[in-house]
Amino acid sequence: MFNTEREAHIAQAVLDLAHRPAGFDPLELLHDVTAQAVALLPVRGASITVLDQDAVSYVTASDEVCRQLTEDQIDLDEGPCLDSARTRQPLEPTVLTERWPRFAYRAQAEGVTAVAAVSLRLPQMLLGALNLFLTRPPYLGGPDMQLAQTLADTTGTTLAHRHELADKDTVLTQLQTALDSRLVIEQAKGVLAGRLGIDMDEALARLRATARSRRQKLTDLAARIACGNVPGDLHPTR
Amino acid sequence: MSRDELTRFLTRLRRAADDGRDLSAASAATAARLLSVQGLTLSLRATSGALEPLWGTSTDEHAPGLEELQYTLGEGPTVDAARTGHTVIAADLTDRAAAERWPVLTAAPTSSPHAVIAVPLRLGVVTAGVLTGYRTTPGPFTPTQRLDLDAFARIALNLLLNTPPRTLAVPRPGTAPRPDVSLRRAQVHRAAGFLSSRLDITVEDALLRLRAHAFSHDRPLADVARDVLADRLHLTPDV
């Protein structure tokens, strides 16, 4: 099915970014997309910046150098990542030149000679960018940039579904808890019917009465009884 | 024939789910007809992983004999779909592939449906339950049919999540349980409790004992449960 090992890695990376448990940590997801970018693309490193109004903030990076180079741009208030973020445009691989003299100097000291960026979008809004740090030509081609955008888009979609998923997961847990509780209560009714020779209505009435008088949750009492531990004070109701 | 009707049905249910309605908005008989299956059931997974059927076509129709048998034996397409999170299809339960995968189920005397499709209801990485379709004729499920079942499964999950938890709670005295969405096997769990106290074994072992008896005597589990509770059937600890 896959022609190359790389294709299989790409599919796995996309799946990994899309397949997150409810309530996952968004920061971990953003860090993972930088790691996937480094694993799949000819880049030195990657970082994530987010845009709030016109302010650009650093979020995470694949490594210390890229964290520093991203924060440098914010501190110096110059650099391709900032321009790209502020114009809300992706950045084709761009060689660091005199346009950003102070940043270019710092980047070159780390061997980084060019930078590219793709947009990190939620379905309805721009969130920020996935920045890519490059060391030598040939720099990223069209298909590489497309892959970077796919990784960023997958991340955006996963982030967008996070709330919805977390809400639904909570609801599911409540339903399952209700189901668990019901099962154990039915079992306890059966135990009482078998032990005391009473019918199901009577068994439930005694369960309720006993739970009330002991100020115990019906489910907890039922769980205890279902384990065969029938309290002695399950007196007949009047 | 019913392509338009299915589309309208799904659109209506999607809206019902958005409006907060639960599975009672969906007629199981209509859904089964439009999805070209004879039986259709939906099970919710308890925290233990056990499947509890909550909704479906009525139990005297084709399917549920096999559904119950899957729970009885702990093997089958529905059980596998819940465990793996993948759709499981048995195009012909009498063929060799099915016999190798589910040796006990396929050897059982009562497997009247010939084809089964089990679609997991997935929520992120969690499998919330399984939608199972049963067909009396063997043969593959077409891609269109699979897509239709997937579409219905997605909507059914949203309807399921709208179920008020109290629907699953013990019915209050004087209120009738809702027939459309309810714990369908309450009687079986009562019988397991009953038997556990009579034989002094755990509820889990008692449930296995009930299932073993149902299987070896080729009887519906629900009937065995009823007889145990009525003290008409006295099971011994050993099979």
From TrEMBL, chain A:
Keywords of this entry: Kinase, Transcription, Transcription regulation, Transferase
Coiled coil residues, start to end: none
MF terms in GO: kinase activity; RNA binding
Keyword Transit peptide: no
InterPro entries: ANTAR (IPR005561), CheY-like_superfamily (IPR011006), GAF (IPR003018), GAF-like_dom_sf (IPR029016), GAF_ANTAR (IPR012074), WH-like_DNA-bd_sf (IPR036388)
Residue intervals of the ANTAR domain: 165-226
Protein name, UniProt field: Transcriptional regulator
Organism: Streptomyces minutiscleroticus
From TrEMBL, chain B:
Residue stretches making up the ANTAR domain: 168-229
Keyword Transcription regulation: yes
Keywords recorded for this protein, A-Z: Transcription, Transcription regulation
Keyword Transcription on entry: yes
Signal peptide: none
Cited PROSITE patterns: ANTAR
Xref: InterPro entries: ANTAR, GAF, GAF-like_dom_sf, WH-like_DNA-bd_sf
An annotated Gene Ontology molecular function: RNA binding
SMART domains: ANTAR
SUPFAM superfamilies: GAF domain-like
Name this protein carries in UniProt: ANTAR domain-containing protein
Species for this entry: Streptomyces minutiscleroticus
